[in-house]
Batch of 4 targets.
Target 1
Amino acid sequence: MFKVYSNKFLKKLFDQNPIITNNKLIGFNNYLTNSRGISSISCKQEGLHPYFITGFSDGESYFYISIYRFNTMKAGWRIKLIFGISLHKKDLPLLNSIQYSLGGNGTIIKHRKDYVQFQVTSIKDLEVLINHFNNFPLITQKKADFELFKQAFEIIRNKEHLIPEGIKKLVAIKDSMNKGLSPQLKAAFLDVKSVKRPLVKSQEIKDPNLLSGFISAEGCFL
């Protein structure tokens, strides 16, 4: 766990690279001043810093390969790639700014009672997203999921997912991501072995905006 105890250091860092989720703003404000004057967030529509988006994604996003039976498909399975960020509805302005900063790609949908979710699913929009993370790399273990997700993207872009061998490649990739395969997929693809999960070698913080983004997602002030 990374801890910082200096109020002076924290104030200087976040004056230059602000935290912008609602709960972190309230917590940071209380921590430094013991006041409760912040009740909402303001995300400027000219866009967020790219490294802020990366840092926030390191903490809050997910990369997912959806594979489910679909009898009308030639290969018998339907594949969907999903990048998502789910937040409480009070942080909807932040999701709007993330979407805006990524060229307006993706959609924002209601997710459960009090949550909203930013999702990117189309091949065209995913290409923009992948270019972003290629240029402004993730640094947590989520980068390994991204690299596997990118492999899956290339398979789908090349339309290999329309044939059985392509489906097997995607299943092998999915098995190394997140929680792996469901019992149903394991039973359906007994002969498929998972691909090797990439190693995350460099975790250098190249820009303070990345740190601010990650703390906005995962930090706490006590």
Target 2
Amino acid sequence: MAEQSIGAARMGAAETTRKKGMPPGPKGLPFVGVGLALRRDPLGMLRSVAEEYGDIASIPVPMGTRVLLNNPEYIEQMLVVQQAKFHKSTLTKQVTERMLGQGLLTSEGDFWRRQRRLAQPAFHRQRINEYGTPMVAIAQTHMGEWHDGETRELSHDMMALTLDIAVRTLFGATLPGEAARVGRAMTFLMRHQLARFRSPLRLPESWPTPRNRRATRETEFLDSLVYRIINERKQKNGTAGGAHHGDLLSMLMASMDEDGTQMTAKQLRDETMTLFLAGHETTAQTLSWTWYLLSQNAAAESRLHEELRDVLAGRAPDVQDLGKLPYLNAMVTEALRLYPPAYLLARTSVADCTIGGYTIPKGTTVLTSTWLMHRDARYFDAPNEFRPERWLNGLADRLPAGVYLPFGDGPRRCIGQGFALLESALVIGTVAQKFRFRLVPGHAVVPEPLVTLRPKFGIRMTLEART
């Protein structure tokens, strides 16, 4: 990608003059707009629109128009200043609701606020820090199965590792031998639901096509795991007033709202499924992309190992060590910049609003791409290069709000941000002391924008044990 500010045609962010109609954008084809191009190359299409049309642009798609925001002030209008005028987008709900139901990711209004309030105590800093020791122990256990010189599909390994961590720390359970199938089920369902959403001809999910039947099987499999976790926790906790374990699931079962009500069985299922999937998927992608970036940047890898050696001297890291590992933390921040798992943030307006001088009608889907903003040369030198050191001189404090958004912003900022950052740093600090990873020659690493940003063909690495 060209390292230039996106779009010579950008309009000034301070411009507030009301304009007629929707923002400018590509015309596309009759009926389908640019839907076919978006389906072929979503990231490339979004970038070309931003380059040509600037800070705010219309994108015609089948049966509607999207509005793309590429300016931090406009993004903050959507996520923070006028957030009450936006709900999670139809796109997000159609792609994820079958799996997640009305969990924190998709619910709205008073119901969402209630669920967030009930879940929040499990993500307080003190509680999250208690997860540090098991995170390290689980990483060490998984490394015990790795051998010097072998080739592994590292993105699969990271999915298995983070699934194990999420299930043990958040739910106090285990899923022995299920990680591979969970990964396959999630990958299929993401691709299936996105293909349905992007298709101009959308067959009903109830029709018994081969793909619909498989989608039903995979959903039932994930449901069975979640209900197993819930039932096992209920048995361990006993009747009301029995033992209360410190994991998230126990806290959700025991938590009571201000009106004295608790979560229903369906609400508990939806929140557990949301945290079960979201609690490991995004971190797995962060770890996978980090190992890939390190394998391509010898200087960064060497500097990380020097810091780990000087601070840890061969022992496993703990939570207290992270404040003494600035380069490790900067590396995680930089990996999230280049490969944000949530590469696209989408909202649907529930009332007319004005952004960038344009009136955005009620019912319009508004997008911003963290993939684009994180690679914008207006805010980042050499934006396509992996440079963790860029974060060591206070860059995060100098960036305008709305530029760096790996966890979103505003009231809907990811509740698990602290958990994900802690897990990423501890796993990297544990694994990097024992192994280097070298990309298999000729293996193509291609970002695939599904619900999260995944490596389309995986990341095949040869392991080198560090001595």
Target 3
Amino acid sequence: MAETANDPILLAVRGLTIGVRLQGHEFIAVDDISFALPAGRTLGIVGESGSGKSITARALMALLPRGLHISAGTILLQGTDLRTLSDRAMRRLRGTALGMIFQDPLRALDPTMTVGEQIAEAIRAHRRIGRSEQRREVLALLEAVRIPAAQKRIADYPHQLSGGMRQRVMIAIALAGRPKLLIADEPTTALDVTTQAEILDLLKQLQQELDMAMILITHDMGVAAECADRIAVMYAGRIVEEGETARVFSNPRMPYTSGLLQSVVNVDTVPRSLLHTIGGRSPSLIDMPTGCRFHTRCTASGLRCRLEASQLDGGDERHRWACWSPLAPRTVPADAVARRQVVAP
């Protein structure tokens, strides 16, 4: 779905910086990132493990782990800066204006409570309704997330469900308060490809039915290509490329983005061939390189890359990149990365 100039902005993040204290020193985990998300649209945030994706998601929810804190920036949700709200006000927003699907449903769900009790608890947190109405709502949510035999599953405990079913329960809990923005942190991790496709299809359908905006955190470029209207590529705590999904994927200008795309396995991949990898490893927070943080792994880096940090000022609002040595424009099918390999169960 193409974004238009008339789409109202639901979420605007400006200059978000997240600090962490390690070994008695302050380090930057997420460095001055900005993005905007129109109502009803999907932003995919992609990158390797440790790039700052999940920390950014937790910062938006005011759920940063101990030791991390927002040191600068604004998070505007429908014009309200979430950083100015009290803990109590943020608790009210979670589940109503903001919902989140966590990466590991087995850890996020309470093993001592049935799935029905946990969904009902999420409903009660935001609405005062009677027990019979709660049960009807729980059943409706379980059916909405396509859990078969919902009437029987309502009394099951998390360990009695498959990984895909547990993820559906997490989605039901996240939707209990009918949020305007849903944050999905690696929602298909550890699921087989068939279940992944089912969960992604479910999220897209629910987004349309409920008119939600969504932030999709993933390391899977194929998943991002399939679901997101815009893409923000993160590396070592910074956004290094951002724009409309088709433009970024069909014509990546940042070498790091190109490397991620070349690593995607799809139906065109030659069987038993070696997968492309990006040499080296992501830098440590306590030993961040000067200049462009990717220059230690980039085959196109030059002197300026090693000395001066690049900004997201290449291109225009439809496609921007932070690179002193951007790749030359090229033409490839915009949907190439979305043709992900599907393995029969």
Target 4
Amino acid sequence: MPKKKVYITAAVILSVAFLAGNLNYPQFLKLPGIPEIPFKLGLDLQGGTHLVYEADLSNIEKKDYSSSMQGLRDVIERRVNLFGVQEPVVQTQQKAGHHRLIVELAGVTDPAQAIEEIGKTPFLEFREQKENYEEIIEKNREAIEAGEEGAEIEIEDPFQATLLTGKYLEKAELSFDKTTYRSLVLLEFNGEGAKIFGDLTSKNIGKPLAIYIDGVPISIPIVQEEISGGKAQITGRFTIQEAKELARNLNAGALPVPINLISQQSVGPTLGKISLEKSLKAGIFGLIGVIIFLIFFYRFPGFISAVTLAIYIALILALFKLIPVTITLAGIGGFILSIGMAIDANILIFSRMREELRGGRIFSIAVEEGFRRAWPSIRDGNITTLIVALILFGFGTSFVKGFAFTLTIGILMSMFSAIIITKNFLRVFQGTKLEKVKFLWY
């Protein structure tokens, strides 16, 4: 590679690392244009509440277990987001025949309120427009236009409740239009619900009929004609995934799934702060120890490795902010492990390069051969670890997922740092007086 290109690449790497460092800690230099993005801390570091619910599926057919639990999860997640929780974790779990819902709320100051809201059964209802519908819409529009930014705006719901609720809906399922092949959702009501739905559609032809779950509209279709027989369809420009989610949400409201709180754990912010400080201290001391070893054993390449690791850490932390990644203790563990993978890659490269230099190769060839011969080991080691991380992420629970996610990002970045950053930094010294000082290299 031409020397000019090497210098440009090294300069770009250092510039990106400098910007990443300022993104991580903007209070140091306070450069204009660098946003102050805080790190997102998880439940174990920020403090909050960990809740486990047992779902009662005794009234649900076995084939509908999965969709009912997913619909329940969607509704509970919507409720949790009303608290303004950062990165709430809501997931289902099946264990020994028990179906459970796990809810993790980081930073929640009133767990009692969360428990009360989460414990409600999802409520599905159909609403028709009020008599002064147009007047309310215009009034809401004027309020939004006249409202000041950041000020609370009072909006009136233009729809009113009807007798038709989720208890009359037997099922909702995904289907496709036979002509246009677009996704749609089929509804089927029981006998009493069919009569109510028929009356409701007959007096609202050409008007919207809103579908609400927990007081939040999820779909507002227009009634095209009176619908009798208790069967209807919701059409629109749905993707398949959107239609599936709508059907799942409808079933969650139509098929009540009672949930009982079986476990509650609270994590205080003081404990989280102590855990974070201890984790960071352990990571810093470990990193310093490794850098001392690298410099002592590999000399100048060890120093280059230390610089590369500093850049690697700056880039990883910047990614954690930008993605963003919710940082937990397990996530920090995955991050620290990925640092070890990055160091291992550098050791393989330097060891192979040292062998080439001792064999009489010139510096430039030793660098290229060192990377070429070390790459298969680096590639295979990182790919096998990456496969394990992806399996953990796919099948693990929340904290395991956090570990796997940070480890995955770290592995990918470690391969980049070894092959791109370390290699170009070594190439900078090709043709210089330093490359002839044997003590620095082996």
